[in-house]
Design a protein that fits this description.
It holds the Pfam family Rce1-like. This protein is mostly helical. It has one domain. Helix content is about 65%, strand content about 0%. It has helices at about 30-60, 75-90, 90-100, 120-145, 165-195, 210-220, 220-235, 240-260, 265-285, 295-320. Helix 3 packs parallel to helix 5 (about 165-195) and helix 8 packs parallel to helix 10 (about 295-320). The relative contact order is 0.17. Mean pLDDT is about 90; it is low at about 330-335.
Length: about 325
């Protein structure tokens, strides 16, 4: 009897993160079908969350769901924020399931080269992420002092709302934002980078131009650029803010590939979003949580060195912790 083929087949040993989808079962159609399936799942899951949320809302309020106003489904800003965070958070398991069903690889290979989330490594990455926030804050203060007329957007205009008014929104934000941030990383730095990386050309050629082109396309850079552009398109930023969010996405993709997983990207994304939501909640400005738009050039100028500090710190930590960068490479400490 022929041995039964396993349901999931991991990538060959020594495979870098961006090519983990290129296992023995890889064919040209799997990333395309998987992306289409993931898009359909995202539409279905987010619609299901909205419907379920509306039913529960009606049960608790004893009335009908109000008519949506613009992008807001409910009249309460915090409820709209919580709904949006949950709608995004449910996409993480959808990404893992798609990798398992369509590409027949370990579901959590979208997380790291060890086919799982390396929790200890993720927590360690919170240190350079906090360092990024601190450096960024100091540099923005310096930029505001040096260039007071740079067109800085007005910040929070409210005052401290008090502990009683803050604790509810803070709990919602702290509980849900990490899952929302992780889901975006699974989508953009996980699925997209690996789907594009799966098309890296194989084989050799005697033609110098073709050989060079293949070498370039095997690098993670095409996947990083394309996934970062899609990440920008998925947001509503304009002008310098678009350049800044593209930089953010490129750095997240770079540290993901260099550390063999999305943990560092999740850490920075989550801490950054926590601060972005908690500050308005503390000053009564949560009604503008969905606002994006533009930003002054100083934001990009201060983010470049801040991102550099974060990247260098993560790479230094990864080297010290011997974090696995390719499949089947087991670190001395299991990251």
């Amino acid at each position: 009897m022929r041995p039964v083929e396993p349901r999931t087949i991991p990538a060959p040993p020594g495979t870098p993160y961006h090519q983990l989808a290129r296992n023995a079962k890889h064919t040209w159609w799997r990333p395309l079908v998987g992306t289409a399936m993931l898009a359909a799942a995202a539409i279905f899951l987010t619609a299901a969350v909205v419907i379920a949320w509306a039913i529960v809302h009606a049960m608790f309020t004893g009335g009908e769901v109000p008519e949506p106003q613009g992008n807001d489904i409910f009249p309460n800003d915090l409820e709209n924020l919580a709904l949006t965070l949950v709608m995004l958070a449910v996409l993480s398991p959808a990404v893992a399931l798609t990798a398992w069903v369509v590409q027949r690889r370990p579901a959590w290979s979208v997380a790291s080269v060890l086919n799982r989330i390396r929790w200890r490594w993720l927590l360690l990455c919170c240190l350079p992420a906090a360092g990024y926030l601190a450096v960024s804050y100091v540099l923005q203060l310096l930029a505001d002092a040096l260039f007071p007329n740079a067109g800085t957007e007005p910040g929070a205009t409210g005052s401290w709302v008090g502990f009683a008014a803050f604790i509810g929104p803070a709990l919602v934000i702290v509980l849900l934002v990490p899952f929302q941030s992780a889901a975006e990383e699974f989508m953009f730095r996980g699925w997209l980078i690996q789907a594009i990386g799966a098309y890296a050309p194989q084989g050799t050629s005697n033609n110098a131009f073709i050989r060079t082109a293949r070498l370039v396309l095997r690098t993670p850079w095409p996947a990083l650029v394309i996934s970062s552009a899609v990440f920008v398109a998925a947001h509503g930023y304009t002008g310098w803010a678009m350049a800044d969010i593209f930089l953010f996405a490129m750095v997240m993709g770079y540290v993901t590939v260099r550390t063999g997983g999305i943990e560092a990207a999740i850490a920075l994304h989550a801490l950054n979003n926590l601060l972005a939501f908690l500050l308005p909640a503390a000053t009564g400005d949560l009604d503008g949580w969905a606002d994006q738009g533009g930003a002054p050039w100083t934001l990009l100028a201060t983010d470049i060195p801040s991102m550099a500090v974060f990247t260098l710190a993560v790479l230094w930590l990864a080297k010290r912790q011997r974090v696995a960068r390719v499949s089947a490479e087991v670190p001395a400490e299991h990251g």
